[in-house]
Amino acid sequence: MWPFSSKKDPNALTREDRKKCWEARDSYFSCLDNAGVLKPGDETKAGACSSENKAYEQNCAKSWVRCSMSLFVHTGITLNNSTQIEYFNQRRVIAEAQRDRLAQANTQAENTKR
Asked: PANTHER family, from UniProt (predicted)?
């Protein structure tokens, strides 16, 4: 017997849900860039990006809750929405660190060639 139903899961993410989440995330991260803030959440001290953060958490949390519910139904695994938003936030910090290391390596390579 095939383990998956042919019926459409009402909790499954739609392309539109994912698009809204990514757009809200991009808008929020762009605001953080403009404010000179690397780590999401640190902007609250400066009072910046509150509307972008609200849209980001609303759109992405809603979409990730649906995804988590779908994962739970199919695999028994459940994830909470704050964990998923933290994933995006941590990826931002990690990506910046990777860019810094790459720039440093390129500078060292240029100096070695001389």
From this structure: CYTOCHROME C OXIDASE ASSEMBLY FACTOR 6 (PTHR47677)
Domain residues for the domain of 30 are 16-113
The pTM assigned to this predicted structure is 0.62
The total number of structural domains in the chain stands at 1
- Is residue 7 domain-resident? no
- What is the Cα–Cα distance from 59 to 41, expressed in whole angstroms? 17
Distance CA 68, CA 58 (A): 15
CB 89 within 8 A of CB 41: yes
Q: Please, are residues 32 and 90 in contact by the beta-carbon 8 Å criterion?
A: no
- Contact yes or no for 77/22 (Cβ under 8 A): no
Through-space distance between the first and last CA atoms of the chain, rounded to whole angstroms: 66
Tokens found for residue 7: 């019926």
Handedness of CA 42, 44, 45, 46 (dihedral sign): positive
Which of 70, 57, 89, 59 shows the shortest CA–CA distance to 13? 70
